[in-house]
Amino acid sequence: MNTPVKPTILPDNPHFSSGPCAKRPGWSLAALEDALVGRSHRATEPLARIREVLSRSKDVLGLPDDYRIAIVPASDTGAMEMAMWSLLGARGVDFLTWENFGEQWVIDGETQLRPLDHRIIRAPYGELPDLSQTDPERDSVFVWNGTTSGVRLPNGDWISDQRAGLTICDATSGVLAHDMPWRKLDVVTYSWQKAMGGEAGFGMIVLSPRAVERLESHTPPWPIPKLFRLAKKQKLIEGIFRGETINTVSMLAIEDVLDALRWVESIGGGPGMIARAEANFAVVDAWVARTSWVEFLARDPATRSRSSLCLSITEDWFAALEESARWDIVGAFTKMLATEGAAFDIATHRAASPGLRIWGGGTVEQSDLEKLLPWLDWAWAEICTEHAV
What we know:
CATH topology of the largest domain: Aspartate Aminotransferase, domain 2
Number of domains: 2
Structural class: alpha/beta
Order of helices and strands: HEHEHEEEEEEEHEEHHEEHHEH
Number of helices: 9
Strand order of the largest sheet: 1-9-8-7-4-2-3
CATH class of the largest domain: Alpha Beta
Radius of gyration: 21 Å
Strand content: 5-15%
CATH superfamily of the largest domain: Type I PLP-dependent aspartate aminotransferase-like (Major domain)
Shape: globular
CATH architecture of the largest domain: 3-Layer(aba) Sandwich
């Protein structure tokens, strides 16, 4: 193989991790100077900023007017657990799973939420399950974008407008990178640390009127921990959706996400973020098409994520190795890039097969991806030379 010359130009921001993700372009600690630290989150001024997060979030997402949104503890994980523990049990539920995070929600359905009439509709990494198997009479739980597989739902056409069940969607790497068919989705969860590059530890939950109706008409058969409670005596706890958070929220994190939201608004809101993710994907897509040693893990082009870009290494010699040896090579490859300051944290998730995962969401600059790709070619050539390939 022709050995690429070592690049001389580094990305301005080498942070391509899929979570926590890159801060918005130009971010610095100065963005937090006005944070109301040392103040009660219940006081008038801090509460106003929390409510500002809710209103700006609703605007940039393009939520319907009658949908509610709230800040909840424990990132997207907490938001999803809250949704499942509070809402499931009234009907049977279909768990759709094709990567690690979908499998986490299956664990709750199989071992924690009992009794629960549940089915599992599963596909291997790189594929989507057969969506036609879902039953509109049943609830459904699914991710929008498989963060660890790079496989996304291309649309919501498979979701019936006449469904009786609720759709509960983990969209933490889906929102602000993909078009979301909100009227098809009854519960949506995500975290600040993904699409907006916000701080970790806080989740967002979005409820449709149908989800609120379920909360007020159904009491689950299992105990619900305080952190998961959205209703009291079969009435929605409205304060949660007015900024009265379930537990103490960090005013530093609030200030940071407000900064991110204002930046999102400055580039055209949700559509602007989606456009940036699409442009970033196009850069990587063109590189994959001309590169012999990688391919997208997502087999169908229509299902390829616009945020978590997961790549398989296709070299025969690499595939012939034991999995532990392949992980060693991926580790050496990514360490080489980190040492050079070209990219940090781009190995695939440990639940996936050894490969690469590059975040391409809207906070990543297209120019940084363009600067990264020659470094990938150079580093792989170095790995091949080391292994005498």
